[in-house]
Each structure stands twice: as C-alpha cells, then as structure tokens.
Amino acid sequence: MYHFCFQGSNFLRAFRTIPEASALGLLLGDAEESAGKANFPRLIQSWNRFVLQQLIQDTIETDSGSGTERIKQMFESEVQTEVKCRCGKETERKSTSLLVTLTYPEFLPPTATRPAKEVSFSSVLQNSMLLDQTMQAWCDDCNRYQPTSQKRTYTRLPDVLSINCHLESNSDMVFWKIQEQLALARESEAHKQQLEANIASIKMCRYGQACTRQGCKFRHMDERDASNPLLQEENKASWLPHGLRIRLNKDGTIEIQEVRDEEKVESSSGFINYYLHASVGHIRDVRTGGNLIAHVQVGKTYHKRKEVRPCPNEQLQQLL
After folding, report:
1. Domains of the chain, residue spans
2. What is the pLDDT of residues 179-216, one digit of tens each?
3. How many angstroms separate the CA atoms of 34 and 285, rounded?
4. Which of 80, 191, 202, 233 is spaced 20 to 30 A from 144 at the CA atom?
C-alpha cells in the first residue's frame, strides 16, 4: 500500500471551474463562512446531489459500456410518475432518481392534553418515496394551470440508497428531535425491564463483597457488577435505524421494514437489505454557522493503514 499526498487547494482550483458547482451554490467564500452566513444543511444536500450527478456524467463520458450501466444500477432508481388532471386526462412519465428527499408529516407540538405521536422512520421514508400529492400543473387539454394529482411508483430500486434529510425548517427539526426522545424513552423502558430480569436471574455470591475470586459470575452489589454485560445500563437508542429492508411490489409500490442494532436479519422473498454506512450531520453554532461532521463505517483493515510503512521516494518516483 502506498501513500500519496494531495493538496486541497488543487482540488478547489479545479472545482471552481465546474459550472454546476457554482449553480448549486457549492462555492463558499471565506468571508461568508467566517460571518456565519453559510447554510450548511442546504450545502451538504446540494453537494450530495452534485456528486451523484457528476459521477454518472463522468462515467458516461469515459465509458459507454458496462461501467456506465453498473454505476446506474448502484445509484439510480427507475421512477414512474402518474399525473392526472382534474379534467380526467392521465399521463405517465418515466424518469430516474439519484436520491430521496424526505418530506415530513404535519406535526403539532405536544401539550399537556395532547401527547406526542410516535412516527417510524420507515413510514416517513416510504411516504417520501411514494410521493402522492396535488399541485398546480399545466394541462394541454384545459390550456391552463389546473389542480393535478401526482403519484410516484418504482420499477427498479438502486443498490445504494442515498437520502437527503431536508431538515431546513424549525417544525421539521422539532419533529425529528421529539421522535428521538420518544425512541429513547421506549428503548429505555425496554432496557430497564430486561435489566430487572437479568438481575433476578443472577444469584448473589455467597461471599458477597468479601469475595476474592477473579471472574466470579455472581452478583456482589459493588463495582464488580458494572463489568457484567448482563447488568450494564448502556442505551444506544436512536430514531434512525441501522438498516432497512425494502421490497418492490408488482404494482410499483414499496414496503419498508426497519433493522435495529444487532438484530438478526432473515432473508425474505423480494426484500433488499440496506445498511447505514455513512451520514453527515450539522453541528449548529450561531456565531460561525456551525460545522459539518461525517460518520463513515469502515472495515477493520482501514485502521491498520497506520501500521504500513510509507513508500520510499525512489519507488514513488518509479510509480509516477
């Protein structure tokens, strides 16, 4: 394995020459960033869209064969949109989609008499993918804009599902925060019941706190119990699941199931398993606009790279 050094300034110099980057507002000036005027949530979503589109475009320009088809299979969904005007005219439009933008349900903040309603992430994603909405659109038969219903179905799902969370309004932020709190409360109660059952199943040590045996599996009512995995109070609850199982039905609709941490996934007919491999979050700061932080799941060999010796200069010159 060889190590190469790249300058970020060289990338930015080439990046500024791409027209699409400027059109999507991806070029962020130093003054704009230091003044805290940058919209980082919108920036990372635009970057996600730009990278996927650029990946497809560059592959088509360099490889018109199996390479292009493979890239499309990895990231593109084949979508069919049914459009129906109020006058009765129906049309169908086929297209491709590189990502899913979440749309959230109407949400009323909880009160003393109205508790918060728990909504699963899978239902939000499913409703966002199968977007069924009514909007103003041009009708050629009516020769004017009319209320038009649009319904989306799928003919193929991608191997890699890219999602934009689209948390740009305060109401959507509150919705996500409350769902996280509800998920934490639910998992905490379940974990508490499991902990009580584990405590009841483990007998007290006959020697109690005076026990000196190493690795004793009985309870002692002291700090040694904290090392017992059955008595730990760790809670990793999150509204965002660690995986999804999606099935494409014959009518173009989809069915989504959530996969939680360490849950055994059984193979079922027609389901595709998706696992969370990367996410980008925004840490808010009113003074500077905040920062973007990425979480990437990597293999065990990734952390062994620091043990590899760097390539000697003479070998590096031969490679170049």
Report:
1. 1-75+279-320
2. 998 888 877 766 666 666 666 666 777 666 677 677 67
3. 12
4. 80
